[in-house]
Specification:
Length: about 260
């Protein structure tokens, strides 16, 4: 299930750069049926470094900053409309988001202050309150649709783009996540001789980066990319050894992809 969110239901939600903090909690025993999947993080927003694109899911929101941390078990998953209402009612007031990370399989609390101030000087007339692009989906299937980069041939488009053999996973592209085993292959075939922006996770660096590759048949070898690609249970992203309190510090800035 996926939802296209509009201005009225906080499609591209933004967060102020004035304050923010996280605290990690235990691995959850159960997950909600649906959550808000964080796809993009706006550059210079406090979510940049606190929310990890593609891996983080919002599973709760609480506007009462004095509520004890262990109260997240009672916090319901917000709908986009409910989240938008909380943000509007708490502009300039700290709120707490409960976030599940599919990579570390842990839940943490993130404290942020909804604000439009971070848009100041940008020329944008509709400043929004958070720095996230989200969709509604099932968090339990979070890491099923990833493609493991295997061998990379010399001189290939994959090598020219900097894809790392056996250390990189394709998580999505500029158009969003991909679904189904054939989705990545179909995407590549649709971009022959065209720049293709991919979001790639590095297990070695534990970060997500943007890679631009140009699939083509003229590079002198076989295949449009010149690399092997693995999909399925044997090619899932490994759980990192980095403690949850540290892994976000390694995540680079990501450009804003929408306006609210």
């Amino acid at each position: 299930m996926a939802a296209t969110l509009t201005r009225s239901d906080a499609s591209f939600i933004h967060i102020t750069p004035t304050m923010g903090q996280t605290s990690s909690t235990a691995t959850p025993t159960t997950l909600p049926e649906f959550a808000l999947h964080c796809l993009r993080v706006a550059d210079a927003s406090p979510a940049d470094g606190l929310i990890e694109p593609f891996f983080d899911y919002l599973i709760g929101v609480d506007a009462a900053s004095s509520v004890p941390t262990n109260a997240q078990a009672t916090m319901a998953v917000p709908t986009p409309a409910e989240l938008a209402q909380v943000l509007e009612e708490n502009e300039g007031i700290p709120i707490r988001l409960t976030v599940y990370n599919a990579k570390t399989q842990r839940v943490r609390d993130v404290t942020l202050t909804p604000s439009r101030d971070w848009h100041a000087g940008s020329g944008k007339t509709r400043a929004s309150l958070l720095g996230l692009s989200v969709r509604v989906c099932h968090p339990a299937a979070a890491l099923e649709s990833v493609w493991h980069i295997l061998e990379v041939l010399e001189g290939s488009p994959a090598e020219m783009a900097g894809l790392v053999p056996f250390g990189d996973w394709v998580c999505g592209w500029a158009g969003g996540p991909l679904h189904g085993e054939s989705a990545f292959h179909d995407l590549v075939e649709a971009h022959v001789d065209k720049p293709l922006r991919l979001y790639v996770y590095s297990a070695d660096l534990d970060n997500l980066r943007e890679v631009v590759v140009i699939p083509n048949e003229k590079w002198g070898g076989s295949g449009l990319l010149g690399c092997g690609v693995g999909y399925g249970i044997l090619h899932r992203i490994p759980r990192p050894a980095t403690p949850p309190s540290q892994y976000l510090a390694n995540t680079p800035p990501h450009a804003d992809v929408g306006r609210a």
